[in-house]
Every structure is written in structure tokens, then in C-alpha cells.
Amino acid sequence: MLERSRELGGGAGSCLPPSFAYFAPGPTRNPHNLAHTPGGSSSGSAAAVATGVVPLALGSQTAGSLTRPASYCGVAGFVAPAGGPLDTTGFVGLAPGLDAVGLLTPTVADLRLAHGALTGADRLPGPPEPPTRPRLAVWSGDELAEISTDMRAALVRSVEDAVANGAVLVDVDWPALTPRLVEAHVTVMAYEAARTLAEESTHPDRLSAPLNELLAHGRSLTTGDYEHARSVARRERSAMLALLCDVDAVLGPAALGAAPKGLTATGSPVLSRPWQLLGLPAVTVPGHRDAQGMPLGLQLVGHPDRLEGLFSLGHAVERAARANG
């Protein structure tokens, strides 16, 4: 979660996030194996839900700060769409054009109920209606990074389950799209962070090395660089919204694999960058595990005006994953 404190106290078991919501790990560990990262920056929230300390926690995302911890800790996560009823009022931001609030709960069904309660949706607390012949755009993420064998297998199993239950698959030329979105996201994030934290950057000795690097990169970018990245975001958001009027969701991996061993880093956010740039809602679906028993999360990205369908689809994918796991 977003945190302006320059120092975070607490012992190794504390459920606390990285300072300024950017990469430098806090003291939280992965509850499934204490030698592994819980992800970041919403690490404390994800770990607290995973251990049963709380049934619901808030998080935030600017790159992959909620989706990745949810995947690593084996819980459900929701990143709210840009302009939706869940906004970042009261949060200390990092990059205003990208920052989003989110929720973490034990299951996708819990996400749906929590979102309804927080937004005042008129909905009875029953189970989500199962989707009928959903149209899915399957995304492997291979064009952005090396995806682990276990994560690939988890995605294949979920796709096979979906098809067996009537889903229709839609082809998309992802390599022609997502690398440009990642590049634009990196530019927007660095440029905005350098200006949001301009005062803090005058005290580099109090900031983490990764944050200092981000701010230095942001200061090196021109207004032209930034405006070009924003134009990419606007153009591709329109195209993606059109696609999401034809398909129910994009289904892909939420992280490169299970939580990496070690506590000095929080893992790569690259698989969330494209969707965060576009301001789209994303649901992290738990239920799969790797050969060592560590959680593997998938993500569903959908249309901001079709959240009920996104939650329902996530519930169905989770139920199938748990049944086969």
C-alpha cells in the first residue's frame, strides 16, 4: 500500500509495505514460505489476508503492486479501474496517472461482495452467476518476459477448463501491442514520480536505491517523452475497450511464476504494466500451485463497465483451479 513514512518499523513478521510503494522490501515475508518474498508493495495486505489475520485489506497499484503480492501469497486481488467509484482519495500517490486502489480477500467471491459493499452496489450477497460461453482473449505474456514452466501449465489448465465449460477463445496479436504499452508505462511512471516526489528527492540519503534510480530516470525525461507515452495510452485504451466489448476478459498470468526465494527484492511487475497504463480493472485469481506448493495466480483483465461479469468469470476460473489442484 502507499506509504509516505521514511522509515518503517516492526520485526520480520510485521505486515508492512515497502516505503513509497516502490520495490525496496519491507519486513513482511511470504506466509507460504518465510524464505520467499511476498511481493510488493501491497505485501502487508496480501500476507495479512493469506494468514487469516484479516478477511479484507486495501492495497494500491501503480505498476504491479497488488496483482503480484496477491499471486505470490495465494489470495484474490482486485485493481480498480481508472475513474471508478473506488479512487485514491486519501492515498499518498507515486504517479497520479497510474495510481489505483485495490482490494485483497481470500476468494474472488469475497472480492465481489467487498466491492459491492464499498461502492453501494444494489446486490444480494449470493454467489456470482456462472458465465455462459464466455469469450476469452488468452495472453501468455511470453513476449514480455520468461514465464515459469509451472505458471505456463497453470494457464493451460485454466484455459482447458474454460473451453471444456463452453468458453470461446479469441486470438490477439499481443507481441504487436504489449511491449509498447510497457515502454509507455515506464515513461509515465518515472516522469510523474519525479515530479510527485520532487521535495523528497532532495534527500536521496533517506530514499531507497531503487526509488532514487526511478526519480533520476524521471528527471531525465522530457515533456515530449511524457506526452508521447500518454498518447500511446489514450490510443491503445480506446482500441482495448473496443476489444473488451467483444470478449469478456483477457486471461493470463499474474506474475512470472511463484514468489522468488529471497527477501531483497519483490519480483517483476512487467505483466501488470500494460493494463495499468490503460487503467483497466484486473482480478487476480488464486487456486493454482507450483511443484513446491507455492501459490500461482492468474489475472483477468476486463472492461470497466462490466465488473460483475469479471468477478463472475474470476469465480468460475478459481473454482475450477481449486477443484483440480
Descriptive notes:
The chain has helices at 43-50, 67-73, 108-119, 149-164, 178-196, 209-220, 223-246, 273-278, 307-324, and strands at residues 57-61, 76-79, 100-105, 135-138, 168-169, 249-253, 282-289, 295-301. With 325 residues, the protein is α+β, with helices and mostly antiparallel strands. It has one domain (19-324): Alpha-Beta Complex (Amidase signature (AS) enzymes), CATH 3.90.1300.10. Strands 1-3-2-7-8-6-4-5 form an eight-stranded mixed β-sheet, sandwiched between helices. A hairpin with a 5-residue loop joins β7 and β8. α5 (178-196) crosses α6 (209-220) and α5 crosses α7.
Instruction: Briefly note the structural class of the backbone.
Output: alpha+beta
Largest sheet: 8 strands, mixed
CATH superfamily: Amidase signature (AS) domain
Rg, Cα atoms, Å: 18 Å
Mean pLDDT: 91
Compute the number of structural domains.
Answer: 1
Summarize it.
With 325 residues, the protein is of the alpha+beta class.
SSE layout and pairing:
Elements: H1 43-50, E1 57-61, H2 67-73, E2 76-79, E3 100-105, H3 108-119, E4 135-138, H4 149-164, E5 168-169, H5 178-196, H6 209-220, H7 223-246, E6 249-253, H8 273-278, E7 282-289, E8 295-301, H9 307-324
Parallel strand pairs: 4-5, 4-6
Antiparallel strand pairs: 1-3, 2-3, 2-7, 6-8, 7-8
Helix pairs in contact: 3-9, 4-9, 5-6, 5-7
List the main descriptive attributes of the protein structure presented here.
alpha+beta; Amidase signature (AS) enzymes
